[in-house]
Amino acid sequence: MAIPSFDQFADMLDQAVDRIPDCFLRDLTGGFNLRKGNKREGEYYILGEYIEDGIGGCFIMFYYGSFVELLEDESEECWEAEIVDTVLHEMQHHLESLAGCDDLARKEMEELAKALQDRSL
Fold first, then answer.
1. Which residue of 57, 70, 91, 113 lies most exposed, with the fewest beta carbons within 10 A?
2. Whole-prediction pTM
3. What pLDDT score was predicted for residue 101?
4. DSSP element (H, E) containing 78
């Protein structure tokens, strides 16, 4: 499959986001946002991130370029599944923040520490 254009990707993302019931969007004041570029932390591409900002409120950012880097040769079904997984992952961060817990963030930090430790061996 050819890589979806930015607009095609935005449409697929909109379809995933539109399925989220409004009750789960409480206090997601900045909504869902999409950037054309990619985002990296070291060797890792960031597909999306939940951001709590005193000025911009709470919002979720997705990085089209990161999806392109990771999924360039994949099927449309794979792209759609990864978009849904990323939306759900970032929504979990949002809901955990509302609940005052950070289990997912803690798990991610443990995985990162393990990956960094494994690289140094």
1. 113
2. 0.86
3. 80
4. helix 76-99
d(CA 24, CA 98): 10
Other residues' Cβ atoms within 10 Å of the Cβ of residue 87: 20
Is a pLDDT exceeding 80 seen at residue 102? no
- Whether 98 has a pLDDT exceeding 70, the answer reads yes
Burial class (CB in 10 A: 0-12, 13-18, 19+), 23: exposed
- Residue 24 DSSP SS3: helix
| Number of Cβ atoms within 10 Å of the Cβ of 116 | 10
Question: 48 and 86 in contact (C-beta within 8 Å)?
Answer: yes
**DSSP H or E stretch at residue 65:** helix 64-71
The tens digit of pLDDT for each residue in 60-86 reads 999 999 999 999 999 999 999 999 999
The pLDDT score that the predictor gives to residue 100 is 83
Nearest to 62 by CA among 88, 42, 26, 43: 88
